[in-house]
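Why should sequence recovery work at all? Because a backbone constrains its sequence more than one might expect. Tight turns favour small or flexible residues, buried strands favour hydrophobic ones, and helices have their own preferences. The token representation captures these environments compactly. In the example below, the structure is given first.
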């Protein structure tokens, strides 16, 4: 589950992680009031207005049809009000949103931390995520912050550092000092970085994050270390331990079909192809999509009905796939292990009859537990469904169906 920047920062503050302070608002008038409050509290003439969407690259992105950036600086209440008015309600297009963009419903009015001071400021980068190849958490950090880390890794890989931490333990003091040293910090900034990264790692573990990225991680002119931006992803499988965090979910930022699928405990990801897929098991789903591509088609979705699928969940999956106008054929590939093939077959029949006029070809491959019963159910149903035994055979049938539809 992704969080907005302002939500992530509020969580970090509970773990004594220093952040750039800000106030989330949803109207231009509230943005102007937020500026006045920040000016009184922190004394700076400037403030930053940041669009709150679940996508990176907001500073480079633009509101569709305008030259307004997703992140902009203002120096008085009127400017802040104008900027917020230009952003709120607009569609922000960034490299991560694609051309469709995302609607901005909130902005964060944040304090200016770049004002001049006795020492130079510095933008750094730091993120924490699981390294599945080593079975450990890894802290990735760099002296090059404020830019795409992929670009740094491509052009200057020697500037990317990594520190691994065993998931059963905490970040050790010597590791935190090593990170501060590699980032070129000294004196008070060094001490503050040790404290910052230690508390940040504790937040990562305690909140069951799957990603915690600070870019830029900022050294202020008075040697404080703060998170200017924060991208936080929470592990969906751990949300049962955090009902308070689950309440932070913003379904307006998610694909509507994926939201609907989650109501039925379906693992669904929308793709850009023309072949709808319904499979049980993530590995089999990936193999099915590979086979579709090898046969000349393009998967329209990833849909794993899981091991507890019944007629209701199969029908729900069917309806979700058919909502995509790009779908030219549907491939159902079920291996009956935990889930019974006859249950899936009954779900297909019920969905077909309930939905009515289904005009796309349906190819079904059912193997495993009660596969024979499933085949008889489908054969006796009178439905226009093509059966296959081998996965390669099913993929070829799909390819032919798509070619005919085209």
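From this structural description, the recovered sequence reads:
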């Amino acid at each position: 589950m992704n969080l907005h920047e302002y939500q992530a920062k509020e969580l970090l503050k509970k773990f004594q992680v220093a952040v750039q302070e800000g106030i989330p608002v949803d109207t231009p008038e509230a943005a102007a009031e937020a500026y006045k409050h920040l000016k009184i509290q922190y004394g700076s003439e400037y403030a930053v207005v940041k669009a709150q969407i679940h996508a990176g690259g907001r500073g480079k992105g633009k509101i569709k049809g305008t030259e307004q950036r997703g992140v902009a600086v203002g120096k008085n209440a009127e400017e802040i009000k104008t900027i917020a008015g230009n952003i709120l309600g607009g569609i922000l297009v960034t490299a991560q949103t694609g051309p469709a963009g995302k609607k901005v419903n909130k902005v964060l009015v944040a304090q200016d931390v770049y004002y001049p001071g006795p020492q130079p400021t510095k933008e750094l980068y730091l993120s924490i995520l699981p390294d599945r190849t080593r079975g450990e958490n890894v802290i990735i950090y760099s002296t090059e912050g404020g830019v795409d880390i992929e670009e740094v890794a491509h052009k200057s890989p020697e500037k990317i550092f990594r520190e691994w931490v065993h998931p059963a333990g905490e970040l050790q003091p010597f590791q935190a000092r090593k990170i501060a040293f590699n980032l070129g910090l000294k004196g008070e900034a060094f001490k503050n970085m040790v404290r910052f990264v230690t508390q940040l790692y504790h937040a990562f573990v305690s909140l069951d994050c799957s990603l915690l990225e600070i870019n830029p991680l900022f050294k202020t002119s008075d040697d404080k270390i703060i998170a200017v931006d924060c991208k936080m992803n929470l592990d969906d499988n751990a949300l049962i331990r955090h009902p308070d965090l689950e309440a932070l979910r913003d379904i307006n930022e998610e694909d509507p079909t994926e939201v609907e699928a989650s109501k039925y405990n379906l693992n669904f990801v929308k793709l850009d192809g023309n072949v709808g897929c319904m499979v049980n098991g993530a590995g089999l789903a990936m193999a099915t999509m590979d086979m579709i591509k090898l046969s000349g088609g393009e998967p329209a979705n990833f849909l794993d009905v899981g091991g507890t699928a019944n007629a209701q969940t199969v029908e729900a999956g069917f309806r979700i796939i058919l909502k995509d106008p790009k779908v030219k054929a549907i491939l159902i590939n079920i291996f009956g292990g935990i889930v019974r093939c006859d249950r899936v077959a009954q779900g297909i029949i019920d969905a077909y009859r309930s939905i009515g006029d289904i005009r796309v070809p349906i190819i079904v491959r059912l193997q495993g537990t009660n596969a024979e019963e499933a085949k008889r159910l489908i054969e006796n149903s009178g439905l226009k469904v093509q059966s296959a035994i081998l996965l390669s055979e099913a993929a070829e049938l799909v390819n032919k169906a798509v070619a005919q539809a085209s």
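A few observations help interpret the result. The chain has three domains: 21-111, 122-245, 255-405.
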